[in-house]
Amino acid sequence: MAKILKIYPDNPQENLINEVIKTLNNGGLIIYPSDTIYALGCNIFDIKAMEKLAQLKKMKLEKAQFSIICNDLSHLSDFTRPIDTSIFRFLKSHLPGPFTFILDANKNVPLAYKGHKTIGIRVPDHPIPQLIVEKLGHPIASTSIKDDDEVLEYSTDPELIAEKYDHLVDIVIDSGYGDNVASTIVDLTSGEPEVIRQGKGII
């Protein structure tokens, strides 16, 4: 059964964040809040956890396009090819924020991302994922929680999310109601911003 941890953005309890970190280090899956929607996450360096995440999304890991959640832009060079100054300035002016930026991947990406030519980077404007990544010491893999309802694309109620994913994840972080609009996806691989999916963020 998933453990529900009530962690609030204005005062995240350190002991609860540490429990999340321990779970991630042990290969667990978490559901966490962001500045857009609730999402599934795991340790990007744990291949078994990444495979579980892919299974949950009913896809093969090599086909999965899981974005990478960072707490700032300091990890950028770990996963992406060198980017020019204008693109870096553009990223800096939009992050943290409700965007997923597609960039060219380098050869040092974690095992689960090997063979991927591009990678999606997110820096959510939300203290909880930022704190998780900061304390973990590296980014986490992330994918959105889709709703089975034909009208609602994304679930917003953490209690209903916990009910649905009870036996599929290890921790559900309840941070109150989430948003129902996903991030805006922007492709930066050509050197010019190209909106692939319009979401919450406005370019």
What does this structure look like?
The chain has 203 residues and is an alpha/beta fold. It has a single domain (3-197), classed as DHBP synthase, CATH 3.90.870.10. It contains six helices and ten strands; from the N terminus they run βαββαβααββαβαβββ. Strands 1-8-2-3-7-4-6-5-9-10 form a ten-stranded mixed beta sheet, with helices on both faces. Strand 2 and strand 3 (39-43) form a beta hairpin. The relative contact order is 0.25. The model has no long low-confidence stretch (mean pLDDT 94). Residues 14-201 form the YrdC-like domain. Pfam families: Sua5_yciO_yrdC.
Question: Characteristics of this structure?
Answer:
203 residues, alpha/beta, DHBP synthase, ten-stranded mixed beta sheet, 6 helices, 10 strands, 21% strand, globular, SUA5_domain, Sua5-like_dom, tRNA threonylcarbamoyl adenosine modification protein, Sua5/YciO/YrdC/YwlC family, double-stranded RNA binding
What would you say about this model in short?
The protein has 203 residues and is α/β, with parallel strands linked by helices. Helices cover 26% and strands 21% of the residues.
How are the SSEs ordered, and which strands pair?
Layout: E1 3-6, H1 14-25, E2 30-32, E3 39-43, H2 47-56, E4 67-69, H3 76-79, H4 85-94, E5 99-104, E6 118-122, H5 127-136, E7 140-144, H6 158-164, E8 171-174, E9 184-187, E10 194-197
Parallel strand pairs: 1-8, 2-8, 4-6, 5-9
Antiparallel strand pairs: 2-3, 3-7, 4-7, 5-6, 9-10
Helix pairs in contact: 1-5
Pfam families: Sua5_yciO_yrdC (PF01300)
Domain YrdC-like: 14-201
GO molecular function, one term: double-stranded RNA binding
